[in-house]
Design goal:
Length: about 230
């Protein structure tokens, strides 16, 4: 009889220990990454949440190269677009089971011939329509007027894009190399880069080549690395 009682007590103790172990808090972690443009959401089912967050605004588009009608020089290139801002946040408190909204900005379109590049869009994290964190956009690069041999200026950004190269006076054979397109701003990320400007008009024996449009800026990005208690 005593042996049976001891066995029953042993089983009860084991079950009690298992139950206590299940009630102990468990540390969990995870990562969210968002690169598709537009609105998305995330929610974390944990408490005592700490997060590291990276937010990148979208880059501006590069400007188009300068067109040619008539003149004594080749034309300038379009300016590069500015890069989007990069923000790194650490030790950020996030709320449990709350729906956060992420808006990934779209890169600005490149400009057509003689056209400026479009500005990018900012990237944001918000809660209940209140913006918590924002990474600013880069602006589009600038072109110039028809026949202008001066390249367009770069768009403001983080950093700004570079100016387009200048065209050159025609030589005795009526030739002149085009101004190069400005390089888009480089924020040392793979996201939110500024678009490159388009090359200007090259002249060969007084025959112009077609200038090129600018390229689109890079889209924004968000990464959230978190840990908490379940």
């Amino acid at each position: 009889m005593k042996t049976k009682v001891k066995r029953i007590l042993s089983v009860l103790v084991i079950l009690l220990l298992i139950g206590c172990a299940k009630d102990e808090p468990e540390e969990i972690s995870g990562t969210f990454e968002f690169s598709d443009i537009g609105l998305q959401n995330f929610k974390i089912e944990a408490s005592n949440i700490k997060a590291s967050i990276t937010i990148i605004g979208a880059g501006g588009g590069g400007a188009g190269g300068v067109g040619f009608n008539a003149g004594n020089s080749s034309t300038g290139g379009g300016g590069g677009g500015g890069a989007g801002e990069v923000i790194h946040l650490t030790d950020i408190d996030l709320q449990e089971n709350v729906n956060y909204t992420v808006i990934i900005g779209e890169g600005g379109n490149g400009g057509n011939i003689n056209g400026n590049g479009m500005n990018g869009q900012s990237t944001e994290i918000s809660i209940e329509q209140i913006t918590l964190y924002i990474a600013m956009n880069g602006n589009g690069g600038n072109s110039n007027t028809m026949n202008e041999n001066i390249g367009g200026s770069g768009g403001i950004g983080f950093p700004e894009g570079s100016a387009g190269g200048n065209g050159e006076l025609l030589d005795v054979n009526w030739n002149g190399p085009a101004g190069t397109g400005g390089v888009g701003g480089d924020n040392f990320s793979t996201f939110g880069l500024g678009g490159n400007g388009g090359i200007g008009t090259e002249i060969n024996n007084l025959v112009p080549t077609n200038p090129l449009p600018g390229s689109k800026g890079g889209n924004g990005y968000v990464k959230i690395e978190w840990n908490g208690i379940k």
